[in-house]
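Workshop exercise sheet. Pairs work together: one partner reads the sequence aloud, the other fills in the structure field after running the prediction. Swap roles for the next sheet.
Pair: D.N. / O.F.
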Amino acid sequence: MTARKTLTLESNSNVMSDKPLTVDGNVVVMVTPPIGEDYWSVRVAVTGDQAIIGFPKFGTIGIGFQHEDKGWNTNLPYTCEAPEIYDHIKVNRRTASRATCIRAIKMIQTWAWTIRNPKLEEETCPRIPS
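Structure field:
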């Protein structure tokens, strides 16, 4: 039996939120930040040269691959099922296995559910099997 690869969730404090800038509760402006390979809030390396990332995207968290060789802007919201996200983004997986990618997606989904719904415990996050 092959040992499972250890996956680590990394955070990036350099990515700004996609929440609207407000003054006294009134929306002032919503800005699209510079988007590129380093635009991610969290990532999980799945191979030596590829990672799955979670990033702010129009009021939600998108999940996709950090390096998009074959399909630019290939991602789905974190609320989709992990296998559905994988099937949509797999064109950019390089040599990462399906099982490793789905584990990484679930890690990012758990992070996204807990930051978007801070009162939820990890065990109660919808759609994410334990």
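Discussion prompt: Residues 9-124 form one domain. What would you look at next?
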